[in-house]
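tool=predict chain=A
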Amino acid sequence: MKGSVKGTLLSALMAAIGLSSLGLSACSKEEEEATEWDNWQQRNEAYFASLADSLSSNPAQWQRLKLFSLDPATEGKATDYVYAKTIASGTGTGSPAYTDSLLVIYQGRLIPTATYPQGYVFDTTVSGTFSITTGNVVKQVLSQMIDGYATALQHMHSGDHWRIYIPSDLGYGAVDNSNVNVRAYSTLIFDVQLVGFSHAGNPLPAWSARRR
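tool=predict ok
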């Protein structure tokens, strides 16, 4: 009887420890998730604001571009602009118009976090390292893209590879977008290479893997 009680108490203690551990694991996971996206709006706004320093320190590689539908001659508010960093320059001439069709490879990310130090990838046509050899070239109609993306692409030339930083006002805005798994108030970071474009009513340039 004594041994039986002792065994019962030991079993109860072990069970309690096990439940406690499960509780701690659950709490740790919840805490980690809360920390991952904590103060998301403020962090994104601060991240976007910090890009002004990159522009001032390296104006040869960075540029600030005003929303295409606004008057470029007047100063707007901070979120009327996108920032673009030139990764590589192409040899093409001319830039797409808002009504044009494009051939691009791209990758869209959020700002860096603890779990995703390079930024969570929410959309991509690239497998592995970003390059024309690992990217799937896709067609886009520029007028169907978000405003910040459309703004930057109208300044690119064929062959250009840019990293584009878009404030939430010119991206998916103040609501969660479940279609692309983007949280509200997210600054968007796009790596884009413009492969080619055509004006409305004209066919896109031919493209095949053999040209890579």
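The helical segments are 2-37, 40-57, 147-153. Strands lie at 62-66, 81-88, 101-109, 121-124, 138-141, 161-166, 188-198.
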